[in-house]
Amino acid sequence: MSDHHHKETFVTKYIFSQDHKMISKQYLVTGIFMGIIGGFMSMLFRLQIAWPDTSFSIVEAFLGNHQTDGIMNPDMYLALVTIHGTIMVFFVLTAGLSGTFSNLLIPLQIGARDMASGFLNMVSYWLFFLSSVIMIISLFVEAGPASAGWTIYPPLSALPQAIPGSGTGMTLWLVSMAIFIASSLLGSLNYIVTVLNLRTKGMKMTRLPLTMWAFFITAIIGVISFPVLLSAALLLIFDRSFGTSFYLSDIFISGEVLHYQGGSPVLFEHLFWFLGHPEVYIILLPALGISSEVISTNARKPIFGYRAMVGSIMAIAFLSTIVWGHHMFVSGMNPFLGSVFTFTTVLIAIPSAVKAFNYVTTLWKGNLQLNPAMMFSIGLVSTFVTGGLTGLVLGDSALDINVHDTYFVVAHFHLVMGVSALLGMFAGVYHWFPKMYGRMMNKTLGYWHFWLTIITAYGVFFPMHFIGLAGLPRRYYTNTSFPMFDDLADINVFMTIMAIIGGAAQLIFIANFFISMYRGQKATQNPWNANTLEWTTPVEHIHGNWPGEIPEVHRWAYDYSKTDENGEYVHGKDFVPQTVPLLDGEEPS
């Protein structure tokens, strides 16, 4: 197959490619571009929060009519918060992790020539690209982009006349998300079919790397939950454009009684959060799977408790679909139902703790190779634990009511989902960059990037817990009207300074990424001495991944530092690739 492929043109190789390796690069570069936009938005609204009455020329330059004398207006503040959240959750973290690494690694790590359907894979990316373009276009409509929060709760999102951000910008938001969901569903179905049907000889499910389990289970969650968000968006479009009342009832605007009757915005909350909470793990599970691979490889130890890790991934996937109601404790929910959601929410701490303890135990007494990928993976374990602990507070309905819609919630989900997932994505980029581009990223710049990122991330979101406990509400564009919050102003200034430094630190990564693509040190075939199948492919990308026959698998992916009864390495080295047959008398792992 690899020797008789048709000659590719520039368009078929780099634009409308059906090769999973090129599609993964397309997802990654698009995700980085969207991340720049989403991150820059956060810088703008952090300036507004820290110095609400100060004029900034940068605000005037980028927001134009949506500011007065360089001071952001309230509508634009809410729009920036909305689009920032949407871009980071869907277009950076979902696409940057699942889109990039599922595409890159699934065929390579299971021993397949390509995805089950290269054409659907290409269509999936281009739908994602189209949805990204529409979301960016929504920033330039006259009344402003969508501004009902990234959760787009009705009635703000359902009534075009409600606020400026409820008009054309909101319509474009809904169209963009509908196309994004179609992209995600096509991709997820492709990943599932590929893992189930195209594994090479000997690659049993119990020999799959944990990355494969994470991507596989993530795809299943996506297939189950994304259609529910699509239905929520379609019903919202009906309410906006066709006079239905799924989410609306007894609405007054400027003294006018609207005709809507019988709907309920709480219905939208149920539909949205049925996707919204599994979305946390659609983002997080791939990052955790990447960290499992990176930590085991760089600790030179087998992953501790492989089957427990697989079980925890499955348990997290199941529980994540039955905890959505913990986002709705203040919606008038029946207290008994609230107690059920509290129970299932606290229960998810068990498989999460299994993962955390297994990471720590894998690191314990390992021969640690502290390269940038390993540092980001260890950072992920740290933020996953610290962010997860605050989840116990928010998962309890009695405690959550006190801090609901405060900065405590913002701090929690940014640490446990946003920062953790970003750290996992960076770990994956540093680890598999040699496989994607045949070159190494600069290690020194990688260390600078890690330390500035982890320090500033905690600098922003650790103090945020305390201003949340003090009662500071989220999404207020200024707090100067509330004297009780005056003492918190200096903390907001500190967090903004840390956010700006952290944002600037990402420029180090972007420079390192694009310069290394062309000028980085050329990579060897297996620079990390890893066991998984992708490192048996040639450095130069070829169609079909392997020249000749696909290699056969004889062992699991984590035979690191395997010794005999004399303490000698069984195969004379501290790693044994999956393609190496078992020796006579060697115990399978």
Automatic annotation (TrEMBL):
What residue stretches are annotated with the Cytochrome oxidase subunit I profile domain?
10-564
Tell me the keywords, alphabetical order.
Answer: Electron transport, Heme, Iron, Membrane, Metal-binding, Respiratory chain, Transmembrane, Transmembrane helix, Transport
Report how it sits in the membrane.
Multi-pass membrane protein
What GO molecular function annotations does the UniProt record carry, in alphabetical order? cytochrome-c oxidase activity; heme binding
InterPro entries linked? Cyt_c_oxase-like_su1_dom, Cyt_c_oxase-like_su1_sf, Cyt_C_Oxase_1, Cyt_c_Oxase_su1_BS
This protein's source sits in the domain of life called Bacteria
State which residue ranges cross the membrane: 27-47, 77-106, 118-141, 172-198, 210-238, 271-292, 304-324, 336-361, 373-395, 407-433, 445-471, 491-515
Q: Where in the cell is it found?
A: Membrane
Per the record, the GO terms for biological process are: aerobic respiration; electron transport coupled proton transport; respiratory electron transport chain
- GO CC terms: membrane
Family assignment from sequence similarity: Belongs to the heme-copper respiratory oxidase family.
Name of the molecule in the record: Cytochrome c oxidase subunit 1
Q: Which organism is it from?
A: Tenacibaculum lutimaris
